[in-house]
Design goal:
Length: 157
């Protein structure tokens, strides 16, 4: 039985193991026990701890809003949320590392700085009054995760 040990460089952390001979093993765990039954080629992937930027573009403009953009550190399950404006429907997310592109509330692997898109479409069943291209009223919930590491406040401009 072999057990490799990890030594991340400064400002880096372990992400996952990859290579041959890892079938059935938890490649996300730092602790890896390998039974050597042949030749293996195994790599440890490290990711930066420095700030990563997530930009979210809403298309078409004013068709809705998205939450989740900003500056963060690595997160395998960074939450992203999209809400359509009146007269629109959420269609999909576009970008790399999004867990479920069809759901307006999803997660993204934030392992590098990224730009993603929240795509909305006109609601063909909209029969309300007013212009469906103008933004509607929205609510905003802010949460610091984990809460013991910080807090979030809102100020008006």
């Amino acid at each position: 039985m072999l057990r490799p040990f990890l030594y991340p460089g400064i400002n880096y952390q372990f992400e996952q193991w990859s290579g041959t001979g890892l079938t059935g093993l938890n490649t996300s765990s730092e602790n890896l026990n390998i039974t050597a039954l042949g030749n293996y080629d195994i790599s440890a992937k490290f990711i930066p701890l420095q700030a990563l930027q997530l930009n979210i573009i809403v298309e078409p403009e004013d068709s809705g809003f998205a939450i989740g953009s900003g500056t963060f550190i690595f997160d395998r399950n960074h939450p992203i949320y999209a809400t359509p404006s009146t007269g629109y429907l959420f269609e999909k997310w576009e970008g790399v590392g999004i867990d479920n592109v069809s759901l307006p509330n999803s997660t993204i692997v934030l392992n590098e700085s990224k730009t993603i898109k929240a795509i909305f479409k006109i609601d063909p069943d909209y029969v309300g009054t007013g212009n469906p291209t103008l933004p509607g009223l929205h609510s905003l919930t802010l949460v610091a995760v984990p809460s013991e590491f910080g807090s979030v406040i809102i100020t008006s401009l």
